[in-house]
Amino acid sequence: MTIQGEYEPSPSKWVRDQVETYERTGGREANTLLDTGLPIIVVTTLGVRTGKVRKTPLMKVEHEGEYALVASMGGAPKHPVWYFNLRANPDAVLVQDGPEPFEVTVREVTGDERAAWWERSVAAYPPYADYQKKTDRVIPVLVASRR
């Protein structure tokens, strides 16, 4: 499946380069966050305002075939733009974790379920705990499930 629309690469060069390399190599290259060695996935969304296709590398937090998508934005006071894309179009989402992207449905989790996914997320990428301390907002956690 592809998401219909014009692809608009990220304004950030390192993000554009990572997505392009990851996709071109089927995830064999550019599959970690910069030089951390920690794995990433590529999430494709449909822009809520523009209708354009967007691709975002996110930390890989996988559990029993589902993926946490943590809207941390490094602990910034506001949510990342892709969070709003997911909320507006939860069924127009692809995740790529390896050679081929696959369709997912996304839902935001709360309560005990969020707590469990947050714990998994911090275990996969410890800076998330520091990001939460930096901001007054509760960092959203969304779960992507294969369709």
UniProtKB/TrEMBL annotation:
It comes from uncultured Acidimicrobiales bacterium. Pfam families: F420H2_quin_red. InterPro entries: F420H2_quin_Rdtase, Split_barrel_FMN-bd. It comes from the Bacteria. This is AclJ. One of its GO terms (molecular function) is coenzyme F420 binding. Gene3D superfamilies: Electron Transport, Fmn-binding Protein, Chain A. GO terms for cellular component: plasma membrane. It catalyses: oxidized coenzyme F420-(gamma-L-Glu)(n) + a quinol + H(+) = reduced coenzyme F420-(gamma-L-Glu)(n) + a quinone. Belongs to the F420H(2)-dependent quinone reductase family.
